[in-house]
TrEMBL record:
Organism taxonomic ancestry: Bacteria, Bacillati, Actinomycetota, Actinomycetes, Pseudonocardiales
Gene behind the chain: pth
EC identifiers of the protein: 3.1.1.29
Record's protein name: Peptidyl-tRNA hydrolase
Record-stated family: Belongs to the PTH family.
Protein's GO biological process: protein quality control for misfolded or incompletely synthesized proteins; rescue of stalled ribosome
Amino acid sequence: METDLPGAGEQIVLAGLGNPGPRYAGNRHNAGFLVLDELAARMGGKFKSHKSGGEVLEGRLAGRKVALVKPRSFMNLSGGPVAGAARFFKVGPDGVVVVHDELDLPYGALKLKFGGGDNGHNGLRSITKSLGTKDYFRVRFGVGRPPGRMDPADYVLKDFSTVERKELALNLDRCADAVEALVEKGLLAAQNAFHAG
């Protein structure tokens, strides 16, 4: 990768991860979808069904051409629709940005990175398999660790708590800002602006 800006060309695929349908809409696992909803509102557009297997919104963000993608498949099958959108828009893996929930970050914390493992995240595992590489951008939205002995798989499929919801709009807004900074200024600048501490 010659630059830390996503995508060598003009077009970028911004994929948010989550599970489809109203039952999952407020789950921690759907943080990626929620951030994309915020970006769609900023772009003034609506998602439309797309042949790649996702809901897609094309437009401009931070001066770049982007396709926002929400896979219609369940989380552990996210790779097909994300890779399908990348092929359709002729975007290489380094032009793909994935926004997802992250158990290993405290609630509301953000981390941006390029490449790396899936850290047990089934959505990332599926995307890495479908793209054939780990070399794509990730924007990680911290949801924190489950309390006590709760299974992490159960925890991420629960809605944000009442206390968390008080800060949720602010945190989603900040994560959308981080995505915009990544798209416009590159990874290092976005990390410097949004990584705490």
